[in-house]
């Protein structure tokens, strides 16, 4: 199977917004200096956005559409465009013979995610999904602990992530446009949270979901998930409320807790004890968030060159897309006690008619 046409991976960046500028740019530049790859195309309908990356990759060419660069000139495309474009652009690139590293969320529906997987299966290239948190030493060690049943039988889990102010430097209003983004904090940070939930604890299903979208995109949401064992836990996410920023799992033998702003450490302890041991891990994969992007790119390039396997293939990301689908199908309105009866009736109608407070706080 032909995967790469030359010794250096020729890369196109599709969508030159914040994630491309902040995280892919330094990783690509380091690998380009090392002779591993070459950035040959920067694609964005807004020329000003691609111009910022062009300063770092002056030998690349700037384009407005993904059909502009010749597929024969590319080995790999990093799809970092608005969420609604991930699936159609990835499928188009795969069908033209170009491998794809698609930013999260893989797609805005499980049906589109599965269509992407089918396109990859029928194409000569590869499809990887940028669930970069899997490249953190801490999250990988937690997965190993849970796989080895170090906590015994799981009794509870609580994932909580949010801040009182939204600081992501979005370069266009598309990030907040429901037609483009399709969802808010659940589609964004939730793609990471639900992926880690499935990766760590196995198959699960959504048994309750509430948010504050009211016809737009949600800034807050609460997900209740049931593991195959029957244990129910929750995922709480926010763009405007400072919450714990911890993922905690408890079992019959012990507990562990990971702070979402750390890459190479987590805490764990014995059941019934609040005394914690901090696991500080060497960074064979990443010791910083930026290095995780570097590790992710190294993995994809190695797979393209036939010297390794994809760490996050398309099939692995579909479970998270299915959980997000389940959430939105069950949407109810979060408790909004400051609204009067008339306002609450309007809010319910905007949110899809569900009752407020259907998911417990």
For the structure shown, list the relevant keywords.
single chain, 361 residues, alpha/beta, Rossmann fold, Dihydrodipicolinate Reductase, domain 2, nine-stranded mixed sheet
3D structure, described in words:
The chain is an alpha/beta fold and 361 residues long. It folds into two domains: 9-133 and 289-313, Rossmann fold, CATH 3.40.50.720; 137-284 and 330-350, Dihydrodipicolinate Reductase, domain 2 (2-Layer Sandwich), CATH 3.30.360. Helices cover 33% and strands 24% of the residues. It is built from ten helices and 15 strands. It has helices spanning 18-33, 47-54, 86-95, 110-121, 137-147, 178-181, 185-201, 289-304, 314-329, 341-350; strands at residues 9-14, 37-43, 61-63, 76-79, 99-103, 127-130, 154-162, 204-211, 220-227, 232-238, 246-251, 254-259, 265-270, 277-280, 331-333. The strands form two sheets. It has a nine-stranded mixed β-sheet. A six-stranded parallel β-sheet has the order 3-2-1-4-5-6, with helices on both faces. β1, α1 and β2 (37-43) form a beta-alpha-beta unit. α1 (18-33) packs across α8 (289-304). The N and C termini lie far apart (51 Å). The model is unreliable at 356-361 (pLDDT under 50).
What's the arrangement of secondary structure elements?
Layout lengths: L8 E6 L3 H16 L3 E7 L3 H8 L6 E3 L12 E4 L6 H10 L3 E5 L6 H12 L5 E4 L6 H11 L6 E9 L15 H4 L3 H17 L2 E8 L8 E8 L4 E7 L7 E6 L2 E6 L5 E6 L6 E4 L8 H16 L9 H16 L1 E3 L7 H10 L11
Parallel strand pairs: 1-2, 1-4, 2-3, 4-5, 5-6, 7-10, 8-15
Antiparallel strand pairs: 7-11, 8-9, 9-10, 11-12, 12-13, 13-14
